[in-house]
UniProtKB/TrEMBL annotation:
PANTHER family: MANNOSYL-D-GLYCERATE TRANSPORT/METABOLISM SYSTEM REPRESSOR MNGR-RELATED (PTHR44846), MANNOSYL-D-GLYCERATE TRANSPORT_METABOLISM SYSTEM REPRESSOR MNGR-RELATED (PTHR44846:SF1)
Stretches assigned to the HTH gntR-type domain: 17-85
Protein name listed in UniProt: GntR family transcriptional regulator
Gene Ontology molecular function terms on file: DNA binding; DNA-binding transcription factor activity
A Pfam short name: UTRA
PROSITE patterns, A to Z: HTH_GNTR
Keywords assigned: DNA-binding, Transcription, Transcription regulation
Family matches, as InterPro entries: Bact_HTH_transcr_reg, Chorismate_lyase_/UTRA_dom_sf, Tscrpt_reg_HTH_GntR, UTRA, WH-like_DNA-bd_sf, WH_DNA-bd_sf
Length: 249
């Protein structure tokens, strides 16, 4: 039919992959290749089943996975739409931003905005359990997903625990990997606090948003077996980053 995308690859029952996985990949390809643009309402379930040659149960499995991956959104009473580039973090382990994006099938990126050694303020010192005025490495980084800005993260680490980090900062892509390989630091737990905030004047240009746009403000203190080693403050674009949780009785 005329509304069938030219690049659609129909699932093949002779292939070893489950039909739901083939259907998910077929629809994902339409989005990735731009045949289904952000904001587009995709065909209804009956039409998709016809196009893909699969059952409704199989289709819903594929659609649910794409929705959880942040590629589709369902609006009750309206239909299903292609999302803009929103990163959806579901059940989350203690991982770096790089690993989290790769888990979501998103290409991670980092742009170093600032690296400096500063004296710990009272807030930083309390978070890292060090003395006020102690030397701290501060990294300010723009975090990217598929080349688009997602957030700005300002990270503080005790200089005594991360020798060489300041000098290597411009080459660090995954901070946690660098810490493991060069400082023997392996995170074991973290505490995070999410607040509703707004994009500050100093962040607006890099985040490509107007000043005052609603955003997530995230504070994170990360620990290894010894002590807290990281205090990070992030501003995340609310239109490109979500947290979803599944609650159990």
């Amino acid at each position: 039919m005329s509304d069938e995308p030219a690049g659609l690859v129909r699932p093949d029952r002779r292939r070893p992959e489950p039909l739901w996985h083939q259907a998910e990949m077929a629809l994902r390809d339409l989005i990735d290749q731009g045949e289904w643009a952000p904001g587009l309402q995709i065909p209804n379930e009956d039409r998709l089943c016809e196009m893909l040659g699969i059952s409704r149960i199989t289709l819903r499995h594929a659609l649910r996975n794409l929705e959880e991956a942040g590629m589709l959104r369902r609006e009750h009473g309206r239909g299903t739409f292609v999302r803009s580039a929103t990163m959806v973090a579901g059940v989350r382990g203690l991982t770096s931003f790089t690993d989290e994006m790769q888990t979501l099938a998103v290409s991670p990126g980092t742009r170093l905005l600032l690296a400096q050694v500063i004296s710990a303020t009272r807030e930083i010192a309390e978070a890292l359990e060090i003395a006020e005025g102690d030397s701290v490495v501060q990294l300010r980084r723009l975090r990217l997903g598929n080349g688009q800005p997602i957030g700005i993260q300002t990270t503080h680490l005790p200089s005594a625990r991360v020798p060489g980090l300041f000098e290597a900062a411009s080459d660090v892509t995954s901070l946690y990997r660098w810490l493991k390989d060069n400082a023997g630091i392996v995170p074991v737990k973290a505490k995070e606090v999410y607040r509703v905030g707004a994009v500050a004047a100093g962040d607006a240009s890099d985040l490509e948003l107007p000043v005052g746009t609603p955003a997530f403000e995230v504070e994170r203190i990360t620990f290894d077996q010894r002590s807290p080693f990281e205090f990070a403050v992030s501003t995340m674009r609310a239109d490109r980053y979500e947290i979803r949780s599944t609650l159990y009785v």
